[in-house]
Each structure stands twice: as structure tokens, then as C-alpha cells.
From TrEMBL:
PROSITE patterns: PROKAR_LIPOPROTEIN. The lineage of its organism: Bacteria, Pseudomonadati, Pseudomonadota, Gammaproteobacteria, Oceanospirillales. Residues 1-27 form the signal peptide. Residues 146-233 form the NlpE C-terminal OB domain. This is DUF306 domain-containing protein. The keyword Kinase does not apply. It comes from Nitrincola tibetensis. It holds the Pfam family NlpE. InterPro entries: Cu-R_lipoprotein_NlpE (IPR007298), DUF306_Meta_HslJ (IPR005184), HslJ-like_sf (IPR038670), Hsp_HslJ-like (IPR053147), NlpE_C (IPR033450), NlpE_C_sf (IPR038139). Keywords: Signal. Residues 239-346 form the DUF306 domain.
Length: 355
């Protein structure tokens, strides 16, 4: 998801020039909350406020938090044309701090006793000012979001979805008039049914509650700007190596209730691959070149584990089929030569015992 940086630059300017920010959006400041007053939301929550702006009347700010860890932050600069910017990623609460992660950057807010969030300054401390830097809880009312997205598109069994490269979020696609041309482009570009196609497009995200299934953001295409067969979101070795990557999806599903020692994982160090099949340790060689993956012979120990025998067989088969890799937000996804999705990993703390 391509995020405009104009809002970040303006925010930094505002923080450095508090005296120059508009004083019209002053409110009585809330006290900071204590850790026992802060909890993670169990339902979707919206927060909003009019925050100071160095060169405009104010910034209409709305933060939408989802219980699954996703967030969407919308900032609209008043009295400016085409001045709405969206940032998306994953949030986490660290005691009294709310951390909004996006790719390699993060925003920090501090909990207040009103149930809202106070913006941090450029040093990561609560802003002390007569101006309002707090967003407060409101009724859940997610905004329609307009943005440019780079992601992996799949259309299969009359349903389409896009996995966003920057967050790893999968958005179901609305079947609008604009989709018809994109459907034809997709079908003429793939090598096998159920293949993924890397695309860049201008889209809208709309919060909807379907007749069946949970509420979610649905993606509506406005304009397809590019598409590239046999290409993924790419993989940077420095973000992959020396971390343990635990399986989270294998052939579309995975039983997360398995004991930790039964979940396959891999680890990359330079051109060395190591890991665990759910029963046996494994080792081999690996070469990563942006989108492409080349595995040498993989050797394993030879124990038999009744509980995970089928899982181990399936995991090793997928390893043999892997051709492309894709870092999609926090997830590392592997594809076969036809761009069919094989499995996906998530980063985990190293295990103390991998035998």
C-alpha cells in the first residue's frame, strides 16, 4: 500500500513550530492514563480529533483500530485540495503506548484517561501543549479509504482478492464495472487457474457487512496502473535472515492449535537453510534473488512422528515446489512456478530446542 509522506512532513513541521500552529482547535487536555486503565480493543474502535497544522486550519484525523491488529489512519488537511492521506499497518499496545507500525516506520500515541490517544512528539514523548493533540473515542464509523496499492491479485471460483504487499492484509474485491476489464487482464496474464498476479492500482476500501461472513474492508478498483506476471512483492535478505519463520498457512490452511514443537519453521543465514519439519530438523542451501528462490538438496533427520507425519510430508513437498517468494507485511509467502500460493510464514522468537 503506497503511503503519501506529505502528512508526516507536515506533522514534523508542526511539532517543531507549535507557536505557528492553529490555536482554534484547543480543547481541555486529558490526563495520561495508567497501565491498568489501558486494554486492547475487543471490537472495532474509531478515534477522531482535529489536530494542529502548521499551514492550514487543522488536520481532521481519524484512527480506526481492528481487533485483529490492523489499523487505518486518515488525515485530511483543511482548506487544501486533494489533501487526504491514508496510512495503514499493524498496531500494538505497549503498557500505555499505542504503536502504529507501517513498513519500517512507526507512530506513537499515549493513552489518556478519557479513553483516547495523545500524540507523541518527535522524541517519542507525550506532547505538552495548549493545542489539541488528542484523538478521542467515537462511534465506530470507518471512513471510505482512497489509496494506491501494490499487491497480489487472485481470481478463482468467481471470487477475487488482493493481498497488500505492505501489510499482508487480504482484501476481498467488489465486483464493480471497473473489475470487468481487470478480470480480462488477469485471465490473459496467468499461467494456471488460481495463480497470483502482481498489480498496482488506485482503489477504494469500503467497510461492509456481507450477508455471510464477518464485516471487512472490501476493495473496489478505480484504475489498474500496472501488472507484472511472474513477480511478487519481493524479498529483502536483510529482513529475512537470522529470524525464525514459523508456518502460518500451508496449502490454504493450518492447524494453529498444534503444540509449538510440532509447527514447522525455517531459518535463513546467508545461503544456509535450517529449520524443523514438525518432527525432524532440516538443513540445506538457499539462494534468494528478489522474487526468486532456489533450494539445494534438503537433508532431514529420520525420526517418525505419528501426530505430524502427514504435515511433514506436505511441508517437504511444498519446499520442493517453491520458486518465488514474497514478503507481504509481516508474512513471508512462497509460490510455485505458476504463481500458486504454497505456504506462508510469520516471524517468531527462536526456539530453545529444535530437535
Amino acid at each position: 500500500m503506497r503511503i503519501h509522506t506529505s502528512s508526516t512532513l507536515a506533522l514534523s513541521t508542526c511539532l517543531l513550530m507549535l507557536a505557528g500552529c492553529s490555536s482554534q482547535n484547543t480543547v481541555a487536555p486529558s490526563a495520561l492514563a495508567t497501565s491498568d486503565q489501558v486494554s486492547s480493543p475487543l471490537e472495532p474502535q474509531s478515534f477522531s480529533g482535529l489536530l494542529p497544522c502548521a499551514s492550514c486550519p487543522g488536520i481532521e484525523t481519524q484512527l480506526d483500530l481492528l481487533p485483529d491488529g490492523r489499523y487505518f489512519l486518515t488525515e485530511t488537511y483543511q482548506d487544501r485540495p486533494n489533501a487526504t492521506f491514508t496510512r495503514a499497518g499493524y498496531w500494538e499496545i505497549d503498557e500505555t503506548r499505542l504503536l502504529l507500525q507501517h513498513e519500517d516506520s512507526s507512530l506513537v500515541f499515549f493513552a489518556t484517561d478519557s479513553g483516547g490517544w495523545l500524540q507523541a512528539d518527535t522524541e517519542g514523548r507525550p506532547i505538552q501543549s495548549n493545542l489539541n493533540y488528542e484523538i478521542r473515542p467515537t462511534q465506530w464509523a470507518p471512513k471510505p479509504l482512497a489509496m494506491n496499492i501494490t499487491g497480489m491479485l487472485i481470481y478463482y471460483a468467481d471470487a477475487a482478492s488482493v493481498v497488500d504487499c505492505s501489510t499482508g492484509t487480504r482484501f476481498p474485491v467488489e465486483m464493480t464495472d471497473a473489475w470487468l476489464d481487470i478480470e480480462r487482464t488477469y485471465l490473459s496474464s496467468i499461467s494456471a487457474p488460481g495463480s497470483y498476479l502482481q498489480i498496482n492500482a488506485d482503489v477504494a476500501l469500503n467497510w461492509k457487512t456481507p450477508e455471510e461472513g464477518p464485516a471487512n474492508y472490501y476493495l473496489a478498483f478505480h484504475n489498474l496502473t500496472s501488472f507484472t506476471p511472474a513477480t511478487t512483492c519481493g524479498t529483502s535478505l536483510d529482513k529475512i535472515e537470522h529470524h525464525e519463520w514459523r508456518i502460518r498457512e500451508l496449502a490454504g490452511t493450518f492447524n494453529q492449535d498444534l503444540p509449538e514443537e510440532s509447527k514447522p519453521f525455517i531459518k535463513v543465514s546467508g545461503q544456509q537453510l535450517s529449520g524443523h519439519t514438525g518432527c525432524n530438523t532440516l538443513a540445506g542451501s538457499i539462494t534468494l534473488e528478489n522474487n526468486r528462490l532456489t533450494l539445494g538438496p534438503v537433508a532431514t533427520t529420520r525420526m517418525f512422528c505419528m501426530q505430524t507425519a502427514d504435515l511433514e510430508t506436505q511441508f517437504l513437498q511444498k519446499l520442493e515446489q517453491a520458486t518465488y517468494v514474497s514478503l507481504e507485511g509481516p508474512y513471508w509467502t512462497w509460490y510455485n512456478e505458476d504463481m500458486g500460493r504454497l505456504m506462508s510464514f510469520e516471524q517468531a522468537a527462536p526456539r530453545s530446542n529444535t530437535d
